[in-house]
Design a protein that fits this description.
Blueprint: H1 3-37, H2 41-44, H3 46-69, H4 71-90, H5 95-113, H6 116-123, H7 127-158, H8 163-166, H9 168-182, H10 197-215, H11 217-220, H12 225-247, H13 261-291, H14 296-302, H15 304-316, H16 318-325, H17 327-345, H18 354-364, H19 368-381, H20 388-423, H21 428-457, H22 467-473
Length: 475
């Protein structure tokens, strides 16, 4: 890999790492924020929800705009917005300002991360080189959440919660400065090729409302009027968006992108797999803190082997395996490893030994380092060059929807089961453990579904044509 490409890859990965870190680093610092700023319990959840709604709701729009105005321009603008919002969040002195800053962070993250994959696949065209680049990139996504929990604990304990945001400022400024020279210039196809304002309003409103509905399920319940009403409105908006895209002269999201089995299948598999993997990211941490009595920093350190395992597989193993055996086979192997991790968690006891009950899970979760690079390659393989930003935004959107659904569904099921066990006379620790076991069991079922879809739908991408042959086809 040449130095200019390596430098560009580092810039793209650094930006993505900031985005992923910011989604998890806040969770460890939430008690300190509540104490210092006077958050109510319900208000505190909006430090996460505001970011998630803006991020997930704007990814698809940002990805398409990147194709229209230029992916480099969108990437730089997103990093500027994110960095400014981080400074504002770190300096917040009240709940309202922090929530607003978190929403703005989500906007910036969506603008930058929606086009990252589009830039990456257009820069790295040789199969082996692309596989290595996607392995590095996927490491930031797979291990970033675990790293965020450790870093959040360290910064909050050593300095203050303000520094979980302030640390983004120098990183963001450096990323913008290097990206100006490191990333290739692209002009985009022009706003006239897809400036569908009505479509943009429909999809953004539909996604934001849908994600808001999902993250509030735990508070209101699945069958509450709030959930059913807003969920129905969200579905109507998204249905209207699809109708608009089928009839608009210059659609925001050309539906041709879904003709590819790999694009459609990879996005579905990703939603299922990440819904399950979020049981690991969130529910394992809750189990360690609420049942085993771990502190925030101890929890982060306990999950560090998972970050190391995922990172090692993503960086040093996945590219070689994808090149030799194909992404479809490697994806299946990774899903089997994740299934083993969830199966192990279904038997967690109230009095657990870390070495026996949790460490094997931290090692098996390395399957995520196989799953994400393979899915990324498959999900982007069916997109044309002009649609790379759109496909990137779509891939990131299904990622966020998968995580939001995972949190809502699994946490609600766990809480419901815990309530039943408490009512039957079980101790709090036993009831919590029973609820978490149910969540892990459902996660295993989601991974089985993901494995079935991957084997039935996905196909190995066609090899890229050799440069000489590609040149002949244009004559």
């Amino acid at each position: 890999m040449s130095y200019p490409k390596l430098r560009a890859l580092i810039v793209l990965s650094a930006a993505m790492l900031m985005t992923i870190l910011d989604g998890s680093i806040v969770t460890v610092a939430m008690p300190a924020m509540q104490r210092d700023l006077g958050f109510t319990p319900a208000g505190l959840s909006w430090t996460v929800n505001a970011y998630l709604i803006a991020f997930g709701g704007l990814l698809l729009l940002a990805g398409r705009l990147g194709d229209l105005i230029g992916r480099k321009t969108m990437f730089l603008a997103g990093n500027v917005v994110f960095t400014a919002a981080s400074l504002l969040a770190g300096a917040a002195t009240g709940p309202g300002l922090l929530i607003a800053a978190r929403f703005l962070q989500g906007v910036g993250s969506a603008m930058a991360s929606a086009v990252v994959l589009g830039i990456l696949v257009t820069m790295f065209t040789e199969p082996r080189e692309r596989a290595r680049a996607i392995g590095v990139f996927s490491f930031t996504g797979a291990a970033g959440a675990s790293i965020g929990q450790v870093l959040g604990g360290v910064l909050t304990d050593a300095l203050s919660w303000h520094w979980i945001f302030f640390i983004n400022v120098p990183i963001g400024l450096a990323t913008v400065a290097v990206a100006i020279k490191a990333l290739p210039a692209d002009r985009g196809v022009g706003l006239g090729a897809g400036a569908d304002v009505l479509g943009a309003v429909l999809v953004t409103a539909g996604l934001m409302l849908g994600i808001y509905t999902v993250v509030k399920i735990e508070e209101y319940g699945w069958l509450a009027g709030h959930t059913l009403g807003l969920g129905a409105v969200s579905l109507v908006l998204l249905a209207g968006f699809l109708v608009r895209q089928a009839t608009a002269r210059t659609p925001l999201m050309p539906l041709r992108v879904f003709r590819s089995r790999n694009v459609s299948g990879a996005n579905l598999v990703q939603m299922l797999a990440l819904s399950a993997m979020f049981a690991f990211q969130i529910i394992v941490a809750l189990y360690m803190q609420k049942v085993l009595g771990y502190g925030a920093l101890d929890t982060g350190l306990a999950m560090l082997p998972a970050a190391v395992a995922i990172g090692g597989v993503s960086l040093f193993v996945s590219a070689r395996l994808n090149t030799r055996f194909g992404e479809r086979a490697v994806l299946a192997a990774g899903l089997v490893l994740l299934l083993g991790a969830m199966g192990w968690l279904t038997r967690v006891p109230v009095q657990a030994s870390y070495a026996v009950d949790l460490l094997p899970v931290m090692l098996l979760i390395a399957g995520g380092g196989l799953v994400l690079p393979a899915l990324t390659t498959l999900g982007m393989s069916g997109a044309k060059a002009d649609d790379a930003g759109l496909a990137s935004g779509l891939f990131n959107t299904t990622q966020q929807i998968g995580m939001a659904l995972g949190v809502a569904v699994l946490s609600t099921l766990a809480a419901s089961r815990t309530g039943v066990l408490l009512a039957s006379g079980a101790s709090e620790a036993a009831a919590l453990t029973g609820g978490y076991r149910l969540a892990f069991t459902v996660s295993a079922g989601l991974l089985v579904a993901a494995l079935i879809v991957s084997l039935a739908v996905l196909r190995r991408p066609a090899p890229a044509p050799e440069p000489e042959k590609a040149a002949l086809t244009t004559l």
